[in-house]
């Protein structure tokens, strides 16, 4: 059930939320084109959104970053200062079409008026009080999430990795609660090749890429990595009786935009039910409308015991959420887990605005339509390119797998006013634009991609 549907049940929501529902929706129109670096058309800013020109140049800011910030990110040499809709602007005023949405975070783009209204209002009245006290926006967002999903209860945190940490703890606690007389209840986990569940120590232990884990070993023991989609091996491991939970992404984002099959997920559901272990869906990147379904698992008609969320839920503010069934929630007691900042009024009011807009059937239908349109367009324009192995994904989470590194192409696109990401082993172009993107902007993105592809020839020659 969507937030809008919940409203029809006479549930009392905050004035900020009710007011946000009546604000005029803005159609992010495309203005007249200007010329980008590689003679590819890009769009000029909307008339009411001028680039924010910073007093410092990009080179100065980048130099300061190298002095003062721990070097954990290999950043692109772009200093962004403002944005509107699907457009971003750097400190010199250059414009970029954003197909990254902050790594699948800014689902409503930049500066969505309903989101801004929700955040501004809530910041003006109450931003944070801790979880020692009740607050209205937290309860309202939890109602919306429960009403629109399989879940009965919600735990809030601050990020995707924190959501998966909580899911790990909840899974182990559930096994101890369910088998109080067993001296050694099930404590192990199954995860899959190409998976990514986060960078904190528990979530890191569930992440398959060794180069993420090796510098920090020993990480949490008891995790077995199986081939994504290998039903037989997974069912056999579940039947061993040692598994507390199976963690799986219905669609792998960081891993390279790989989708599970319905048969695989249904087999996991049945095996977990038979063995008494939990099925955890990590929808941190693929959830909340990105596939054209509110939750990615709805496309498979398979439902988990636990689902972890984060990236788009508060439209750019830090939030995570763990959605659980009543049987899981019953195992959790006061003090078992917690967080100082989690689910504060500011981020929850933002989350209500985001969930309300994305959960409407017309919005989700538009994501499906635009996703199929763009995928078909890419197949038509790039499908026969010698470097392209596969174009996959659905909704607005799409991957272009290459037989060479995607980095030169990503760099060339950035220089031409288009921002895209890599994924997989660095050979996949990952496309996760704001869900509000227009077909005209998708046309422009495809044009820039096509014109930048020859840069791969130079890499091969070198």
Automatic annotation (TrEMBL):
<keyword id="KW-0055">Arginine biosynthesis</keyword>
<dbReference type="InterPro" id="IPR015421">
    <property type="entry name" value="PyrdxlP-dep_Trfase_major"/>
</dbReference>
<comment type="similarity">
    <text>Belongs to the class-III pyridoxal-phosphate-dependent aminotransferase family.</text>
</comment>
<keyword id="KW-0809">Transit peptide</keyword>
<dbReference type="GO" id="GO:0006526">
    <property type="term" value="P:L-arginine biosynthetic process"/>
</dbReference>
<keyword id="KW-0663">Pyridoxal phosphate</keyword>
<comment type="pathway">
    <text>Amino-acid biosynthesis; L-arginine biosynthesis; N(2)-acetyl-L-ornithine from L-glutamate: step 4/4.</text>
</comment>
<dbReference type="GO" id="GO:0003992">
    <property type="term" value="F:N2-acetyl-L-ornithine:2-oxoglutarate 5-aminotransferase activity"/>
</dbReference>
<dbReference type="InterPro" id="IPR004636">
    <property type="entry name" value="AcOrn/SuccOrn_fam"/>
</dbReference>
<dbReference type="InterPro" id="IPR015424">
    <property type="entry name" value="PyrdxlP-dep_Trfase"/>
</dbReference>
<dbReference type="GO" id="GO:0030170">
    <property type="term" value="F:pyridoxal phosphate binding"/>
</dbReference>
<dbReference type="GO" id="GO:0005739">
    <property type="term" value="C:mitochondrion"/>
</dbReference>
<keyword id="KW-0028">Amino-acid biosynthesis</keyword>
<keyword id="KW-0808">Transferase</keyword>
<dbReference type="Pfam" id="PF00202">
    <property type="entry name" value="Aminotran_3"/>
</dbReference>
<dbReference type="GO" id="GO:0042802">
    <property type="term" value="F:identical protein binding"/>
</dbReference>
<protein>
    <recommendedName>
        <fullName>acetylornithine transaminase</fullName>
        <ecNumber>2.6.1.11</ecNumber>
    </recommendedName>
</protein>
<dbReference type="InterPro" id="IPR049704">
    <property type="entry name" value="Aminotrans_3_PPA_site"/>
</dbReference>
<dbReference type="GO" id="GO:0009570">
    <property type="term" value="C:chloroplast stroma"/>
</dbReference>
<keyword id="KW-0032">Aminotransferase</keyword>
<dbReference type="InterPro" id="IPR050103">
    <property type="entry name" value="Class-III_PLP-dep_AT"/>
</dbReference>
<dbReference type="InterPro" id="IPR005814">
    <property type="entry name" value="Aminotrans_3"/>
</dbReference>
<keyword id="KW-0496">Mitochondrion</keyword>
<dbReference type="InterPro" id="IPR015422">
    <property type="entry name" value="PyrdxlP-dep_Trfase_small"/>
</dbReference>
């Amino acid at each position: 059930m969507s937030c809008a549907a919940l409203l029809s049940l006479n549930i009392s929501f905050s004035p900020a939320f009710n007011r946000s529902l009546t604000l005029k929706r803005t159609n992010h129109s495309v203005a007249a084109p200007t010329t980008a670096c590689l003679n590819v058309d890009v769009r000029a800013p909307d008339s009411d959104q001028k680039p924010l020109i910073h007093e410092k140049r990009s080179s100065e800011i980048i130099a300061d970053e190298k002095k003062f910030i721990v070097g954990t990110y290999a950043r692109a040499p772009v200093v962004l200062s403002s944005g509107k809709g699907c457009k971003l602007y750097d400190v010199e005023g250059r414009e970029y079409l954003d197909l990254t949405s902050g790594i699948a975070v800014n689902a409503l783009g930049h500066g969505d008026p309903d989101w801004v209204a929700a955040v501004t209002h809530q910041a003006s009245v109450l931003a944070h009080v801790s979880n020692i006290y009740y607050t209205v926006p937290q309860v309202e967002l939890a109602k919306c999430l429960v009403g629109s999903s399989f879940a009965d209860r919600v735990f809030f945190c601050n990020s995707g990795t924190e959501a998966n940490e909580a899911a790990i703890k909840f899974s182990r606690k559930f096994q101890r609660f369910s088998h109080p007389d067993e001296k050694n209840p099930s404590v192990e986990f199954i995860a899959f090749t190409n998976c990514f569940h986060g960078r904190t120590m528990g979530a890191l232990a569930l992440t398959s890429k060794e180069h993420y884990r090796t510098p920090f070993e020993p990480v949490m023991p008891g995790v077995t990595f199986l081939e994504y989609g290998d039903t037989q091996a997974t069912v056999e491991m579940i039947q061993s009786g040692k598994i507390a939970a199976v963690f799986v992404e219905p669609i792998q984002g960081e891993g390279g935009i790989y989708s599970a099959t319905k048969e695989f997920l249904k087999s996991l559901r049945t095996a977990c039910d038979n063995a008494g272990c939990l099925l955890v869906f990590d929808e941190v990147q693929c959830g909340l409308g990105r596939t054209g379904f509110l939750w990615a698992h709805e496309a498979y008609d398979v439902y988990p015991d636990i689902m972890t969320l984060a990236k788009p839920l508060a439209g750019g503010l830090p939030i995570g959420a763990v959605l659980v069934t009543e049987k899981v929630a019953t195992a959790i007691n006061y003090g078992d887990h917690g967080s100082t900042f989690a689910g504060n009024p500011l981020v929850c009011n933002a989350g209500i605005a985001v969930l309300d807009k994305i959960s409407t059937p017309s919005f989700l239908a538009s994501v499906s339509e635009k996703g199929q349109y763009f995928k078909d367009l890419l197949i038509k324009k790039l499908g026969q390119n010698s470097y392209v192995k596969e174009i996959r994904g659905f909704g607005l989470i799409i991957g272009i797998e290459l037989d060479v590194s995607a980095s030169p192409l990503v760099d060339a696109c950035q220089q031409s006013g288009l921002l895209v990401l890599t994924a997989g082993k660095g050979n996949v172009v990952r496309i996760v634009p704001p869900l509000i993107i227009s077909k005209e902007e998708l046309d422009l993105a495809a044009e820039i991609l096509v014109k930048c592809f020859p840069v791969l020839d130079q890499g091969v020659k070198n």
